[in-house]
What we know:
Chain A is α+β, with helices and mostly antiparallel strands. Helices cover 18% and strands 39% of the residues of chain A.
Amino acid sequence: xxxxxxxxxxxxxxxxxxxxxxxxxxxxxxxxxxxxxxxxxxxxxxxxxxxxxxxxxxxxxxxxxxxxxxxxxxxxxxxxxxxxxxxxxxxxxxxxxxxxxxxxxxxxxxxxxxxxxxxxxxxxxxxxxxxxxxxxxxxxx
Amino acid sequence: xxxxxxxxxxxxxxxxxxxxxxxxxxxxxxxxxxxxxxxxxxxxxxxxxxxxxxxxxxxxxxxxxxxxxxxxxxxxxxxxxxxxxxxxxxxxxxxxxxxxxxxxxxxxxxxxxxxxxxxxxxxxxxxxxxxxxxxxxxxxxxxxxxxxxxxxxxxxxxxxxxxxxxxxxxxxxxxxxxxxxxxxxxxxxxxxxxxxxxxxxxxxxxxxxxxxxxxxxxxxxxxxxxxxxxxxxxxxxxxxxxxxxxxxxxxxxxxxxxxxxxxxxxxxxxxxxxxxxxxxxxxxxxxxxxxxxxxxxxxxxxxxxxxxxxxxxxxxxxxxxxxxxxxxxxxxxxxxxxxxxxxxxxxxxxxxxxxxxxxxxxxxxxxxxxxxxxxxxxxxxxxxxxxxxxxxxxxxxxxxxxxxxxxxxxxxxxxxxxxxxxxxxxxxxxxxxxxxxxxxxxxxxxxxxxxxxxxxxxxxxxxxxxxxxxxxxxxxxxxxxxxxxxxxxxxxxxxxxxxxxxxxxx
Lengths: 141, 506
């Protein structure tokens, strides 16, 4: 079901990006610095600060956590400018756990290894261009 | 085109930027010129010694000289905390509040005094020592080559005050948890977590003991406009942690507790979530056209909140507060604005003067009418301290570090100790010799005394003329007689912030 939703979102994206469509590319995300193999690594692709805040993602993938490095592949990502957020959902409750004042309690990271400043990094810091050629984004927790 | 941030990175990187703008380059934290500027000024202004880093990592001293006589009834330990390391990997912090916490324990026993000093081994200190360079920006310093902060707790320097709590000595900061130390060896045990929920939460350096033995404290999560209220029961355990949402939270360093209320002063130094400031202080703005707000919370029901307003002003420290005849009276050391935070405490790190100390002021909140009133006492003083046994009740006297007028001094710092008698209005003062600047003095009751005011005022002072830290013991009823004992240590300690006396024999 989730896979279907991802596909549907990708299809939607293709429609949104419409005029600039070239052939969709493969986006490989290599995540390193994973503490242990508990829970899942959840990776999401988004288009803007607003979308990230509202958790409107163009694609999401989850994979079992493994100490060290994990790779995920987003297929059919249309050319465009995106950001990636990943977090280690250690207790597999499908959300980034936060403390009482909103600071994340589980490891998280962004594309370009952008760091936040009293909040998540801005889209301009995390964003990168996806072309029709396959590419790899390396993110370190 | 090079923007300001790029320029600062360049300045940190080397000499190329120096030729463009020596002033800005020298003023950039972590640039080679910044520490050099301080050292150059220190050579001309010996009083800056108080802002030099500790000369060593550990202090242990028994061989000390005492003038006068240490009272044999005085048994226990004065613990003090303050930033002791103003450089990391040779790069100097820009703000006085950023250095790693150095705990100093002064033990009185059998008419003698011992000193032990140890840094709090925070996560930050350990990681940065291993790396040999700064890894996180501080409260008031943004290293230009580091990214912004994920949250204030990352820079926890545990450098502001102490609290003896059960078998632990807690080193308090305000943006994150306290660190627990062994009160005897001063070895760091680790972060003191009250419950699973409190990990890395802000916990202020100014908890207040209530008359019923409950310990109250607060934490400010400015980025979430959230005030956290901690209630720690007489069993030493957290009995409640309550978030209170506040519109546009202000910077809050201290608070007061009365019989029925918790009182938070919110100066117009407000947090700005949209700011791109790279350190916590830099994300605050002084809104000079706005009033100071006072939030008064009912201790028995936090949802019962009242707001008061008074003219814009800034306070670090309150002496005390109490209720009488439908009024809350608050003793404060008050500044007209927050420039001490932004300018003076940054300037001193590069070798310029800090500015004036605060005016002793009583603020009255009229619980019936909602009106406020404030009255200056006519003395300039900071670090106000009362007899903690009457915290929340009307106090008989306030001890403080004072700027005494008409006293010749070779330095612009506070130069005396004052005792304000709240019954008679009489102010006693003692002016230190001109190369000596005093630090906070606490009140220690005399266990053999028959009057509540009997006891000692004890505290440290920096004799920059002799490069020595001294500890003075005054008869608390006769400050103007001068110290009954002065003990000198053969080294200078950096000026610190707050201390607490523990009468336990350790």
